[in-house]
Design brief:
This protein is of the alpha+beta class. It has two helices and six strands, in the order ααββββββ. Helix content is about 50%, strand content about 25%. Strands 1-6-5 form a three-stranded antiparallel beta sheet, with helices on one face. Strands 2-3-4 form a three-stranded antiparallel beta sheet, covered by helices on one side.
């Protein structure tokens, strides 16, 4: 028993093998392109998240001068004195609900402090404020 293969059949097998190998090459290149684009997307997302974290940190950062004003007002509220003078280059306001608003360099910072009922803020000079209350704690 001998197998005879016609020359046309060999060409057809070769033709199919070339087409299959070309399809495999195209699939491989597509896979590599998707992987590369996925990595670049991951890098882009990581870069955006890093910049977003930095912006959030900058927004949450309260200047030391403002922290000092909040600290002085909180200590004064719990003391027995009727007034306090603050040296500060920004602007200070106290809302009726006990929220201190401090503005420095165009940015406004807020903090709630209990016990501010009846407290008034008067500007004494360019960089000086007088906080006083109408009753003793």
């Amino acid at each position: 028993m001998s197998l005879e293969v016609s020359p046309n059949a060999l060409w057809e097998i070769l033709y199919v093998a070339v087409i299959v190998s070309l399809l495999l090459v195209v699939l491989l290149l597509t896979y590599l392109a998707i992987n590369r684009s996925r990595r670049s997307v991951y890098k882009l997302i990581e870069k955006k998240l890093t910049s977003l974290e930095k912006r959030i940190d900058d927004l949450l950062k309260v200047p030391e001068e403002v922290e000092n004003v909040f600290y002085q007002i909180e200590n004064w509220v719990h003391s027995k004195s009727d007034q306090i003078e603050l040296k500060f280059s920004g602007d200070i306001r106290i809302d009726p609900g006990g929220i201190i608003s401090v503005e420095v360099g165009g940015k406004r910072y807020h903090k709630y402090v209990g016990g501010l009922r009846g407290v008034t803020v008067k500007r004494k000079g360019e960089n000086s404020f007088l906080l006083s209350r109408s009753y003793s704690p």
